[in-house]
Amino acid sequence: LSLKFGDVGNLKGLVIRFLLTTSYYQLSVQNWFSLHRLQLLYNHSIQATFNATRIYAPASYSYHCEHVSSLQRYDALLIPSSANDLSKLWEVTFTDFQIQGFNIQEGHFAYAKDCASFFSPAILMGLVMSLILLLVLAYALHMLIHLKSLDRHYECKASPAYFAQGKDNDIGDEKEPLRSSVNESYELRNQQFCKIYI
């Protein structure tokens, strides 16, 4: 597949050539096409050649990518084929790149297989944060399940309290003489104490 631009500045007869191949894969039971090589031609000779990596799609689909470039910041899908030629002097970047080499119908691209990975850095960070929150929640539930409740058992028993007879006899209704002796003692009938077991 050749894109011919003609004369651009000092470049005479600029052509960008895409070499596409198609193969049949038994696992997917269909044909796939891939971009094998990219060539830059001007002045009627090949000036730079780049090997393409990870640019493929089913033959009935097209391939789409936001950036196809030889630069590392765009993931460098185009790699100079040799250190001896002029490829390293070129920086090639296609923006909103879409290509389809086979089974083109009515001059329109078919459904596109996008180059975006299912595990982009943002998605991975979201998965990691979700895992951390899940672990915190599991730990909190574990602590709640094993939390011991405070079982309080109250046991109230009537206990006599003995007081020596004093000068005040105001609580005569609540006192009952225990024995007749010189030092009289009295019992408070409604005095109670409680034991709390925890």
UniProtKB/TrEMBL annotation:
Q: Where in the cell is it found?
A: Membrane
Q: Where is the V-type proton ATPase subunit S1/VOA1 transmembrane domain?
A: 117-154
Q: Which Pfam families match?
A: Ac45-VOA1_TM, VAS1_LD
Question: From the record, what ranges are coiled-coil?
Answer: none
Keyword Transmembrane helix appears in the UniProt entry = yes
V-type proton ATPase subunit S1 luminal domain sequence ranges: 1-102
Q: Indicate how the chain sits in the lipid bilayer.
A: Single-pass membrane protein
Q: Which residues cross the membrane?
A: 118-141
Keywords from the UniProt entry:
Membrane, Transmembrane, Transmembrane helix
Which protein, by its recorded name, is this? VAS1L protein
User: What organism is the protein native to?
Assistant: Centropus unirufus
Taxonomic lineage is:
Eukaryota, Metazoa, Chordata, Craniata, Vertebrata
The gene that this protein is the product of is Atp6ap1l
